[in-house]
Amino acid sequence: MLQKALVLVFAVAGIAGSVGCSTTSHYLYATVPAANELAVYREDPFSGTLTALAGTPYTVGDGAESVVIHPSGKFLYVANPGQNENDISLFDILSNGYVNEIPPRTSVAINGNGTPGGGTQPKLLVMDPAGNYLYVMNTASDNISVFSIDTGTGVLTQTPDSPFSLSGLTPLNMVLTPTGNFLYVSVSGGQIGTNNGSILCFSVSAGALQPLSSPLASADGGNPNGLVIDPSGSYLYVANTQSQSIAIFSILPSGALEDNVAGSPLADIYSDPFALLLDPKGQFLYVTNQGSSNVAVYSIDSTTGLPTALTTSTSAFAFTTEGSPSFLVEDPNGNYLFVGNQGSSAGIQAFGVNSGNLNPLLTYNVGNTPSSIAVTQ
């Protein structure tokens, strides 16, 4: 089974950053679980070309699955879900892109009160926009661990009430609103009598999670793997892999989700939509279709939030990738898009971005299946 994680990125949450005109190099970090590695590249801001740093990839924790960068650019965190790990690695980021691990690694297997029985298999890391809290999705224990972050040292301290239970529902993905006030977690079940997955809704206060009064919303489709929120925090987009659709929900001031967008869920003519990314201005939505080996692009109606197929692309609003594209991230300038593919070639592809259209640049083979990418600001 493919190793799958979204950063959505990735965070997406906090990773894509804001569009700018920086001419300094950025650094791209990719986790490679099968090899227990962290691959590191310098990104040329003028061409999008990636150059592997000498001496990398690093050997890191067992099954290294998810990577996230602190907003300060000083620290990097990696989730290690392997059998001898169940922990989070902390790294200092040097000015030349290299990183140094700061031991010891932080266990998720301990509760916030110091007793055993916390989290198992940390698969996804999401950080709040201010860089004060790290949220850890534990897929074997069906819960979310929360750690406060010392902004001076990067050291993690688990909050007293952590981890937070998902009531036996196994998480697929999670995303924070741009304000950091609400957290949404997608799960494969929860809707009795249907094949739909669900979205669990939490309010967030000082890192603590509190289920909303209506904590469970239908995902309007099966296996809701992809999640992304527009920059204004008005809409949540969900990629339902099993039902080949994209659902759009309005986010109310209370954090509740309302299924009121006309035209939602939107049928995907391609197979197995998996990961989603919105550009920093919320104008274009990118969708990886694992079964069709492409990235589809939609323009977003700023009034209704509804995606519309980008008609200027050359092949039915989709751009060809390697096999099984599974996650994607845009560089901070908004000029380049990087796609992680989990097929037999196991590569990272670089695309130039022009008004939503993608221009293929180069492909980088990382040797084994990559699972997440983070890029410095």
Mean of pLDDT: 91
Beta fraction:
over 45%
- Specify the biggest β-sheet: 5 strands, antiparallel
- Helical stretch tally: 1
Please state the second-level CATH architecture: 7 Propeller
Q: Distance between the terminal alpha carbons, to the nearest Å?
A: 33 Å
Secondary-structure content class = mainly beta
At the fourth CATH level, what is the homologous superfamily? Answer: YVTN repeat-like/Quinoprotein amine dehydrogenase
| C-alpha geometry | globular
Q: Could you state the oligomeric state of the chains shown?
A: single chain
Helical residue percent band: under 10%
* Rg on CA atoms, Å: 19 Å
The beta-strand count equals 33
Low-pLDDT sequence parts: 1-21
The CATH first-level class comes to: Mainly Beta
CATH topology category name: Methylamine Dehydrogenase, Chain H
Domain tally: 1
Concise structural overview:
The protein has 377 residues and is mainly beta. The chain has one helix at residues 12-15, and strands at residues 26-32, 37-43, 50-52, 58-59, 66-69, 75-80, 87-93, 99-101, 106-107, 122-127, 133-138, 143-149, 156-158, 164-165, 171-176, 182-187, 198-205, 208-218, 224-229, 235-240, 245-251, 257-258, 266-267, 273-278, 284-289, 294-300, 307-309, 318-320, 325-330, 336-341, 347-354, 357-365, 372-375.
